[in-house]
Amino acid sequence: MKPALLMIATLLAGPALAETHEVAMYTRNDRGPMIYEPDFLRIQPGDSVRFVPVQRSHNAATIDGMIPAGAQPFKGNINEDFTVTLTEPGIYGVKCSPHYMMGMVMLIAVGDAGNPVFPDDLPPRARQRFDQIMAAQQ
Q: What is the pTM of this model?
């Protein structure tokens, strides 16, 4: 086999390349206040999520009790363009630390993920936003 064909065959036979998914963070957009866009992602283990503060004063952090067993929590700094690679299958709950009480949350489903388990101590607006996110997935 010629070297060029061998290289192409090797690339095609290898594992799929991981993807990077982008999430914009807004104070307000056409969907309302305190929004991640998109607010739900379905990705594969090994994919990355890049959080981009389109408007200032936002970050992305995991919610206590809303990450898969064995997963590492993450927390970006305010106004930081932040990328995280997620390897553990399951549901990740994500919040904007300063706007959590205002309902700025999102869900990331990695691999074969079941339904999320919501902690009892979720702020009411966060719970309302999660309900909206889940209803949109039906």
A: 0.86
